What we know:
The chain has about 290 residues and is an alpha+beta fold. The protein folds into 2 domains: about 5-120, Diaminopimelate Epimerase, Chain A, domain 1, CATH 3.10.310.10; about 125-280, Diaminopimelate Epimerase, Chain A, domain 1 (Roll), CATH 3.10.310.10. It has helices at about 30-40, 75-85, 130-140, 165-170, 175-185, 225-240; strands spanning about 5-10, 20-25, 45-50, 60-65, 70, 95-100, 100-110, 115-120, 125, 150-155, 160-165, 190-200, 205-210, 215, 250-255, 265-270, 280-285, 285-290. The protein has an 18-stranded mixed β-sheet that branches. The protein is globular. The two termini are about 20 Å apart.
Amino acid sequence: MPDDVTLIRVFVRGAGGGNPVPLVADATGMTAAAMQAVAARHGHESAFVLPPDTPGCDWRLRFFVPQHEMEMCGHATVGTLWALRQWGRWTSDVARIETLSGIVLARWDDAAQRVWISQPAASVQTLGAHDCQRVAEVLGLPAEAARYAMHNASTSRVKTLVALPSVDMLDSLQPDFGRIEALCESIGSTGLYPFAHGAVAVGGQPVIHARQFPKSSGYPEDAATGIAAAALWGYLTGIGPLARPGEAPPSIAVRQGDTMGSPSEIFVAPRHDDGGQPAGCWLSGNVEWSQP
């Protein structure tokens, strides 16, 4: 059936972890309203596989949240490609995926049994003092938090990055959810993404903890946000504390969803074009079939 839905979990880090994705493996003939109805019924970002319109692409993906269509969804793309691999529909080492935000490149990591997808270089803009104060108020931060580093950063969608001094402060946030949509609208953002540095993983990989409060997706918090993690990596390794002039930027692991009981982990690594020049980043993570 065109609306037959498979449930998967993406960016899984532990029991009950990851971000759920309702996936329609063949959405041929489905209307946009029918796709949005699937997302509304399940309450999560949902992915729909279609034949490509662009020559040279393998599939076209559409993404919906309960409230609207999205141009790009990182975890749904990773999860969809992983499922296509398990079903034997993707057998090559690489793929090209058509989305509303542009062409996404994918590669299969056979050793790790994971999918990596591309994101372009991030654009980063520092928030002004007044907007920083408003963000701090909506997140329920103390008055001095208006001096924390806050930036609008984007690879596919703009996220507002808020640097916090500790993971404990991050975990204790109690935002005023009723004010998030208007705030995000006024600062040109699709969600607030506070983060804090955690421990360093084995092998020296920095671990960043984060939470995502979306502008208007139809739910208050997101368990794992690949697009936000890519924007965060772009800031951290471009002008932030992980910037290393003259050196290759590091890979990071972004942990999210702990306060929701959905421990998640997103791996972000530097990407280079065929000429060896920096070209944004790669996103990956573990995927599982969702348990009934």
